Amino acid sequence: MKKNIVPLLAGAIAASPMPPASADEQPIATVTITAATRPAFDTVADAGSRLGLTLAETPASVEVIDRALMEQRGARTLEDALGGAVGMTVGGNPGSPGVASTRGFTGGFITYLYDGARISTATMSTRPQDSWNYERIEVLKGPSSVLHGEGGIGGAVNFVPRQARREASAEALLSVGSYGARRAAFGLGGAAGSASAWRIDVSHNRHDGWIDRTGQKLTHLTAAWQTTFRPGLRLDLSLDRLRDDLGAYYGTPLVQAALAGAPTGAVSDPAGRVIDRRVARINYNLLDAVMDADSLWLRARLSWEPAPGWTLRNELSRYDADRLWRNAEGNVFGPPANVVRTQSHVSHAHRVWSDRFDLGYQGTLAGLRHRFVAGVELTHTAFASDRRFSDGSATTRAALQVDLFDPDQGYYDDSRALTTGPGNRALLRTRVRTAAAFAEDALTLVPGLTVVTGLRRETIRLENEVDDLNLATRSAFARRYRPTSARAGVVWEAWPDMSLYGQAGTAAAPVGSSNLLLMNAASAAYPLTRGRQFEVGIKQRLAGRFDWSAALYRLRQTDVLSRDPDQPNLTVNNGRISSRGVELSASWHASPALSLAGNLSVLDAQYDTLVEAGGVSRVGKLPVNVPERTARLWSDYRIASLDLAVGAGLSYTGERYADNANTVRMNGYALADAYARWRTGPARVTLRVRNLTDRLHAKWTGSCAANQIVLGDPRTVELTADFSL
What we know:
By secondary structure, the protein is mainly beta. The chain contains eight helices and 44 strands. The strands form eight sheets. The protein has a 22-stranded antiparallel barrel. The longest helix is centred in the N-terminal third of the chain and has 10 residues, at 6-15. Residues 228-692 form the TonB-dependent receptor-like beta-barrel domain. It comes from Pseudoduganella albidiflava. This is TonB-dependent receptor. It is found in: Cell outer membrane. Residues 55-156 form the TonB-dependent receptor plug domain.
């Protein structure tokens, strides 16, 4: 399974012209800016550092997907936008929508931030969101615990909402498309008096879905206010209100090839099961299925510059979210032509208070350029969940079973007879109190050579209480963790607009799925799992026309829960997962009219040590939902005389597996998109076609991972008009 990926990076570097660009050369105007290219070589991304480092100064792979790029690519949601990042795939099912995979890690091992603040594990808090309300997305690859706390072994993603600015602006968008898709959004902002600015954005995104009863309604309000009391003293206030109502689809069951009247090649299975096109549009969920959420997030950030070069900042936030799932989640084929379902009812009441205080300095140390920040962060999370799951008895299975081709989905059955047994009716309450101290430093030893270091020490107090309503028992436990995470890197500006870097970083995460909120007593007894990465890379801009970057990394996770090979009934934490790979991205502005961009990720990930129930070894197997190859290519061309722009995109996602045994394979696929955009007056009208070839493809694993698969969208057409007034 191992592949020699070093020559790929060496060849890419050798092929690059190395002479420095002339300082007199000016960038040529371009049609678009791509995700593979930094929007500007001096762009600052908070996901990669709290020091205000530019992308060129950061010793890590950091990518920025800005507003212009989201519009160019037609990203309707944050998932659409994030899916264009190098080496990143996005999927999930309604139990945890919109989660990502990168560098061999998925779900809770990728930290999600909103305007630099974290709520909890991504698998618990992420929801589909319209891209309209966001200014940019910042993607950091590799361990991020030193910046953002436990969990981020694979990376971190920061979604930055639109900010308050004094420049007056008024924008709007209207869109219609296939399967009843409708979008409407507007944004307003500008100055308020001589010292303040404001911004408000509202978006509504809905569609009926290409699979029966899978429509969605997303309504999102974001607002920002900024006031400068006097030079050096500023207050930023923001509000984020999101409501969604989603038609939940948990996946299409794999059926025996002999029964399939229209078998497809989306999935390969040694047991002879396939995806039958005849049932691809059937939703086996309940007729009264529910998947909705309502969240409110308030933030206040105060910045003060008490002396030249010094900055004090304090950010206080409050997050409240209520979520509800009531569905038939498991859809497993059963002979002769049935679907055996499971039923669940889960609610979340999620409350988070957090406060972060830091002191920053930008100046000199012994005559050397010096940047430094240190601070503390306090977070209190209260989480409650009412949980109901159907048992696996023959009677329950028969009650929830439906016909494969003509299902009578029925309604939620709240009979206690379907939820017998330990843990199937329970009330969960979790509290997490976190106190962290952190510091980060960048010291330029000689012009062009900067050393960047970081350290974070956390104390995490976990308290859990479960009322088992079936057993009439209450259990509780408490656990304390004290992880330390660190990063050290060097950046060398070898030539103007060219940086070479190397770094080593560590991270910590809860064992299992990296989710403290659902941690049970058995898992909590183990120490946190650890991650360590070594990375080297290059970032370069040539003559203002050609941007490229490359990264070579090795990432390893240890202390993974496994089984003792000699005593398979005994759980131990000697498991280990590793990944190594190369990531390449480039953008070429060939002329003022034509631009080309692309990225490639080649990955080798595997379980180095893992034993599952029954003493079965998974050594050498690929983790679930991890593609070892991804590639994307975009072209954009502008016909200035007609005020017309046309473009196309091609993306490839390599094969992945739906189970740790690597028996159910989701086959690789390529998708093509195209658009044409015409400007008339204050409006831009865009016609976009996605999945031009109408390729049926497997996007992610379903709830019963080895038995049902979430399918990706078919061909769709969309007409959009956006206005700047």
